[in-house]
Amino acid sequence: MPSQKRTSKQPKKAQALQKKPRTSIQDDSQRPKPKGPIILSSSSDSSDSSSSDSSSDESSSAGSQVSPRTTPPEPAPEKRKHIVKSKHVVKRRIDPMDKIGRWAVCSISAFLNIPAIDADKFESLNDNYEPDDMDQSFLKAWDQLVVLAPALKELLKNADTEKGQIKYSDALNKISCSVLSARQYHTSIIRRDIIDWMTFEDNDPPLAKLPKSLRGVNHPATRRLIVPQRYFDKLNDPEFLEKLRNGTVAIRATDWPAFLYDQWQVDKENIEIGLFTGELLFSVFYAIFFGIGSATSGDYRKNLIAARNGMRKVTGRNIAYAAIQARFALSAIEKWNIEDAHFDYQVFYNEIVDFFEEFPEDEQAVWTLEYWNKCVFNHKDGLAGLETAGSTRSEDEYLSDIAASTTIIARKARKERNAKTPATGSG
Predict the structure, then answer these.
(1) How far is CA 399 from each of CA 299, 346, 364, rounded to the nearest angstrom?
(2) Most exposed residue of 208, 231, 266, 364, measured as fewest CB within 10 angstroms of its CB?
């Protein structure tokens, strides 16, 4: 029987019963489940309880044959042992060759073939060696690796012994594995977050991050980015879109995709105007070389990935690496493949590298790299140019620069304070 609402008219005796621990409840169905274990009193406990208060005696004489039940207090929570952690955290030592491989993939080549480079380098030690164009590219990659890891030259020199050969092979294997690991890592973070950096139009349907098959030509936002720039004006043509979807219109690596361009600068008469200045390309670059947190801000700090690896300027290979990662992330394919239908990623990468390196003095190539370095390092020649400029310009001119550091500002303030303070003699 449900208990009635207590009112001020209840007898004092009833009020006293309600204030005492529950010893008997006529209807067990209304009994709340106890939080702790229920302890049933034994016969010896009953005899010992004869000296209990009158409320217990009256409740037992009410005809209830159930032994009084009490809910013991909840046990105190177990005290956890507090382990005092040392302030000194030992960082996992990174093997130098692993570090070289992770940086080499985005600074030397996205498709670094270490076994082929090794084979060509050994061949080149022969007096009658005549390299072809492919061999030349591998030998150039070796020279670039040695710049990053000078120890390789000494390891190669000592590779004429069994022990030396093992050390040399082990170093190359570590570089090869870390090249693959770094590229896979970059691919995973760019494909995951690139949608957050894209620009959507008002009438675009939502685009979920998964499955990736929704991207590519299947969604208007990604379609506007991967379509070749020369087809950009046809995106509102239903007939063209159908040909694009069924593959009649092929997207090839030799056609610059629209995401490489700043669409506000595009010149239909000159396909190179606005090339490699697309906003999304910069976001991918910043995510790879600065860190995922800098993807939209582009803020350069001393502890960033680029700084830790000694990056002092942007190169065509850096841009090419960001471009292939962006292109894969925008596509509908789930797994990384060098070939995506008609689109070959290695050809795409090489086309971009050739744009900057085949004719390095070309006006457009020079302008593009200067533009990138201004955006990334705030100087057309990168960090080296910024340091040189700081030594030749007056301090006031340097402070007016956007990238003026707080240390220079503080130095200027100290100089002004000291100029106002008269010098005091020692005696």
Answers:
(1) 18, 44, 31
(2) 208
Residues 259 and 332 occupy one common structural domain: yes
What integer pLDDT is reported at residue 286 of this predicted model? Answer: 95
Q: Which two tokens stand for residue 33?
A: 């489940």
CA angle 417, 421, 422 (to 5 degrees): 155
Whether residue 100 is contained in a domain is answered as yes
Tell whether 334 and 414 lie within a shared domain: no
Contact, 363 vs 310, CB < 8 A?
Answer: no
> Is residue 43 domain-resident?
no
Q: Taking residues 86-104, report their average pLDDT.
A: 77
By the 8 A CB rule, do 281 and 190 touch? no
Torsion angle of alpha carbons 421, 425, 426, 427, nearest 10°? -140
Which pLDDT belongs to residue 73?
A: 62
**How many domains is the chain partitioned into structurally?**
3
Give pLDDT tens digits for 187-223: 999 999 999 999 999 999 999 999 999 999 999 999 9
Question: 3-state class of 210 per DSSP?
Answer: coil
Q: b/e map of 281-312 (b: 16 or more CB within 10 Å)?
A: bbbbbbbbbbbeebbeeeebeeebbbeebebe
Q: Is residue 277 situated within a structural domain?
A: yes
Cα-based distances in Å from 221 to 99, 201, 231: 36, 8, 15
- Show the domain range for 166: 96-185
